[in-house]
Amino acid sequence: MLSRFFYSLREANIPVSLKEYLTLLEALKAGLADYSVESFYYLSRSTLVKDERNLDKFDRVFGATFEGLETPFDTDDSLVAEIPEEWLRALGEKFLTEEEKSAIEALGGFEKLMETLKQRLAEQKEEHHGGSKLIGTGGTSPFGAYGYNPEGIRIGQDKSRHRRAVKVWDKREFRNFDDSVSLGTRNIQVALRRLRRWARQGAANQLDLPGTIAATARNGGSLDLHMVAERHNAIKVLLLLDVGGSMDDHILACEQLFSAARSEFKYLEQYYFHNCPYEGLWKDNRRRDSRVDTWHVLHTYGADYKLVFVGDASMSPYEIAEVGGGVEMYNPEAGQVWIKRFLAAYPHAVWLNPLDERYWPHTHSIGMIDRLMDKRMFPLTLSGLDSAMRELMR
Amino acid sequence: MFKGTQSYIATQDLQVAVNAALTLQRPLLIKGEPGTGKTVLAFELAKALDRPLIQWHIKSTTKAQQGLYEYDAVSRLRDSQLGDARVHDISNYIVRGKLWEAFVTEPTPILLIDEIDKADIEFPNDLLLELDRMEFHVYETREVIKAKVRPLVLITSNNEKDLPDAFLRRCFFHYIRFPDPDTMVQIVGAHFPNLKHDLLREALTTFYALREVPGLKKKPSTSELLDWLKLLVAEDLSPEVLRSKDNKITIPPMAGALLKNEQDMHLFERLAFMARRGS
Fold this sequence. Notes:
The structure holds two protein chains of two kinds.
Chain A: H1 2-11, H2 18-29, H3 37-48, H4 55-65, H5 76-82, H6 85-95, H7 98-107, H8 110-127, H9 132-138, H10 142-145, H11 159-170, H12 188-199, E1 205-207, H13 209-218, E2 227-229, E3 236-242, H14 251-264, E4 267-273, E5 280-282, E6 291-293, H15 294-300, E7 305-310, H16 317-321, H17 335-345, E8 349-353, H18 364-372, E9 377-379, H19 382-393
Parallel strand pairs in A: 3-4, 3-7, 7-8, 8-9
Antiparallel strand pairs in A: 1-2, 5-6
Helix pairs in contact in A: 1-4, 2-3, 4-11, 12-14, 12-19
Chain B: H1 12-24, E1 28-32, H2 38-49, E2 53-57, H3 64-68, E3 69-71, H4 73-82, E4 94-96, H5 98-104, E5 110-114, H6 123-126, H7 128-133, E6 135-138, E7 143-146, E8 152-157, H8 165-169, E9 172-176, H9 181-191, H10 197-212, H11 222-235, H12 239-242, H13 262-278
Parallel strand pairs in B: 1-8, 1-9, 2-5, 5-8
Antiparallel strand pairs in B: 3-4, 6-7
């Protein structure tokens, strides 16, 4: 049971290891789960998840694992094998009434109880066929999953507590921290950190004081200067942002990315375009008269600049492929020619797309740009940003 | 078992995490928005369990070795120049770090490693073995310092840097979520038992509305709410002052306690202005 939960977590890309699994078992053995589903949920969450970005995934897996197991009664052998007997005994002690306890005695002790439970549960099932009230809600409980849910067989667990427990993970309060969700106000700091890791690898020269002292000592006292690489941001970024039209929906995300990049990179140059870059770009989004010749941009910034396009790439295919396809003015050369020129000038380039990755296949032009970019289009999410940065550093 | 204290309301998930860490003697890593009571937890825990608290506040320059011990070579050099007899025993110049203290203090203390993400990225890795085995070797005196009873180690992080996986695997983890209104009423009740009910209700409404304002750089948190309430109580304001007229946004009194940067203040004033003009 638990091992299945464990593997489901791994399948959901939550990095749980054997060590954590063993810790959880140890904690259960120490009685920390308190025989209530809610405590078990909290305990396993605290043991297995180490990053708030994975909490939402965990909630989903927890819900799925302990819900989809309503009817494993034909496998009661494994049931007996997997639940430690002490658990059941303690559970029974906790929830059984006095009459029921004596009834158990009368039935011939604990082993018999299992059968009775099975029987009772079957009765319940007939009465409330398909009802969600009994086993459905209780299905998320490890006991319920085994047909041992006190609620389902009415051995007296207090109901409201149970229902609240179900809600705890069904509420999915940690959805915001999941990194496949687009950048939000609060996630921007985390994004900044990703960019920082990327930027910390520049190289410059600085006096290495301890190294110099050590070398001087080894040198018998005559000065031997040593230099060391400085941890300063030597990365240069050329940022090209799509503005207007369909990009209006993504203004917030782009602004956040931009302000993060601004504070992070010493050498950041940004230009704006609309839908697809052509022969002219703008330096200032509000002043379209600040137009700069694209050739000028290509010639000004060297190949050591990393090129980052930001745009949803959603446009008419003509805007990419045809001469004169541009929406705003007549373009003597097709958009793809310009994109190819950019890619030739800047070997390290990515395209960040604020549009949800799931919708990409529905728009033809996104596929065209992606092919032009050689599959270097990434969604503007934390994980997308991370892969994009890795791509740029290659 | 830890159940929260009079002045600290612990939600059930926090209690489970703390008790798991206590029982299994593993470190507990606490994350959460600033101002949700990560550091305060250690103080309250020490009080509730009646154990001494050893605090180790991490800065960007802190090295893992400083938590174990430092060898004060300069003092020894000076003493040798002065012919001090102490100079012959190297252990006189071993300065104990916080971790060492935590290992030998009786009764078993609680060790708070505050804001571990401030330190260098290698810092947590350097403490792996020490926190796992609760022992380390003092090279200069060739002795092994070992904790008789493992202290409870609380680690807080503000998420400025990723922590290494190997380190995380050894900890329990708890993310302190921003409290929901019900919990918040309890928290406020713990701090201001005599607060007028009306005032509390109005203040919380204003507070949660403020957190909902889109585009705030720093949302006000629990500690800011408590500060703000303190001011409200000190000024003896009536609940009517807080009540917004016709559900329009108004700037609450003493807003400076809630909004800590000028862009946020500015944004809020503009919203309030627009709301007034629209009426």
